[in-house]
Amino acid sequence: MSYVPQLPSNAPFTPEQRSWLNGWIAGVLAAQARDGDSAPAEAAPLVPVTILFGTQTGSAEGLAKKLSRDLQSKGFESTVLGMDQYAKADLANCERLLLITSTYGDGDPPDNAVSFWQWLNGEAPSLSKTQFSVLALGDTNYEKFCAFGKAVDARLEALGAKRIADRVDCDVDYDAGFAAWSAQVGQAFSLSSSAAGILPADTSISGQDARSTSDRQDAYPTGTKANPYSARLVTNQLLTTASAAKETRHFEININGLSYEPGDAIGIVPENDIALVNAILDHGGWSTDDELRHLLLHKHDITNPSKDLIQAVAACAKHDDLTALIDPARSADLKQWLYGRDVLDLLQLLPKGELSSTDFIALLKKLQPRLYSIASSLKAAPSQVHLTIAQVRYQSHGRARNGVCSTFLADRAQGDTPVPVFIQPSHGFKLPTDDTKPVIMIGPGTGVAPFRSFLQERQATGARGKNWLFFGEQSRMQSYFYKDEWATLIQNGVLHRMDTAFSRDQEQKIYVQHRMTENGAELYRWLEDGAHFYVCGDASRMAKDVDAALHQVIEQHGGKSTDDAKAYIAAMKEAKRYQRDVY
Ligand SMILES: Cc1cc2nc3c(=O)[nH]c(=O)nc-3n(C[C@H](O)[C@H](O)[C@H](O)COP(=O)(O)OP(=O)(O)OC[C@H]3O[C@@H](n4cnc5c(N)ncnc54)[C@H](O)[C@@H]3O)c2cc1C
Ligand SMILES: NC(=O)c1ccc[n+]([C@@H]2O[C@H](COP(=O)([O-])OP(=O)(O)OC[C@H]3O[C@@H](n4cnc5c(N)ncnc54)[C@H](OP(=O)(O)O)[C@@H]3O)[C@@H](O)[C@H]2O)c1
Ligand SMILES: Cc1cc2nc3c(=O)[nH]c(=O)nc-3n(C[C@H](O)[C@H](O)[C@H](O)COP(=O)(O)O)c2cc1C
Question: Does 371 sit in the ligand 1 pocket, CB within 6 Å?
Fold first, then answer.
């Protein structure tokens, strides 16, 4: 039987409210399990609600749309908009505002929230008419967990808006948090609207209604996060030489019937490494438990230990050092201690057979899908998705470790093994709709993936705009991915310029941003001609350095002050001419 989360027993609700909210949660989770793009229900819209999302990879947008469907079916007139699509002037008159946002970089806003956030912190008016609530998406593996959602929540309050339901901060496994939050905001808006006589009491939300609405949905489509499409891997090729320091691979997956656009990503639900699963079963004394084996292989995260597991092991093993690290003030030390350790390392701190399998499984996180930028265009590779993936393999604490998904594809997904996938539409990382516009693409390492897709698409559609690719890797001889394809595209007049930066072919590192500054005058001319500027790949260092180089090029070759260069780039972002897909 599947587990349906309930409100905590200490939550401040009357028994009637609790029963109503638990019903709503069950209904929302049932709808999520279907996860379809169902048509809005027919109920006449009565009460306006604005739902704004801040997203990088689409999760917040998906939840915003789900919430909107739920609210519409209950008599609310909900409008869903990206934070970059919202006419900010409307905010002062917005009476019901719900925000769902992720956090990126190092506690920063996702790209589509940057200008909204600047405005909210600057010229935003008093929001005394506004009732609001925030759902923050994040990942507890990051130091600044849900930092942007927290900042938005605090800022709205400071501007005089009234919080109608407490912010909920969600880890990557956000379904239950979303269900609980949406129940609370639905209830709060419903009650306040009924009190104001806007929403008749008999149209207020009930858990029963939520369930029956979702039951009315037609057969849900395949290829969603909750219901992935079962694809097959058909090609698995090395892009680097056997002696290269890094192993990067090209994969081709058959995805009959699924559709995507250049710039989209694909979510892959991996299978864990059976050798690691067996080692865990062996240490726990559960080797004969086939159901547990299945759960560890397919459902649970056995590489990133949860906080609950760490606490349980520290207490059970009376491990004073680990217990001390659980103190929130020591989170950086805990992170360092965990680096290169997995669930088996934790389990091995306990004597064999110390935990029951039921207790153990309850202490694990859910296995999460991994996202990959699609490296093909359907026009060039019908019914396929191509991927460019760096393999995560390293030694730690005397044991070889493997990245779950990269090595699932490289080592374990052969033949008939199902590869569960879903398309994750990109938010804004798209080719210009005007095909005469020039395009500049900065794609070191696996960051080149979406640009292979862009170029295939532009070739297939005969786009007239010019294309300039910057590619960087460690070595021309060992890691020049897709070298022959770029040469053919140059020959065919599709790729007008290509600059490479091989970082380890000489003593001094040469990176893509060095090539940008060397060619700054021409790069600036392309920008002045309306070029769209794209960056994909490593977020932690490369994307920041490329951004700094872009500022430098505009200052130097546009003859601009630092502030004017900043304004130039802000205008590019506003016009969607500066797009990033960084991870
Ligand atoms: C929108 C988006 C697009 C992406 N596109 C691509 C793409 O096109 N190609 C691509 O290759 N990746 C891409 N990624 C990254 C990808 O999603 C995965 O994060 C990556 O493949 C690693 O997943 P994994 O399951 O193999 O490794 P995991 O099992 O998730 O392991 C990775 C973790 O291992 C640990 N680790 C790694 N090296 C070491 C070490 N030496 N010592 C100790 N610990 C270590 C780190 O904690 C790291 O976080 C993208 C990510 C996003 C969000
Ligand atoms: N968080 C980190 O510290 C870190 C580091 C590396 C990779 N990664 C992640 O590893 C995954 C795969 O990486 P990848 O194989 O795609 O490529 P990558 O490791 O990003 O390397 C691609 C090329 O970029 C160079 N590079 C390194 N630092 C750079 C910088 N600051 N600016 C510009 N170029 C820089 C690399 O040079 P050198 O290798 O010679 O320096 C290499 O030539 C990605 O998910 C990436 O985010 C993370
Ligand atoms: C490169 C990168 C940086 C991230 N930085 C943070 C962070 O600083 N804090 C946090 O809580 N979550 C962070 N996250 C996690 C995302 O917020 C989380 O995965 C969220 O569910 C994504 O939602 P979205 O698809 O709507 O963007 C980061 C994720 C990535 C890929």
Answer: yes
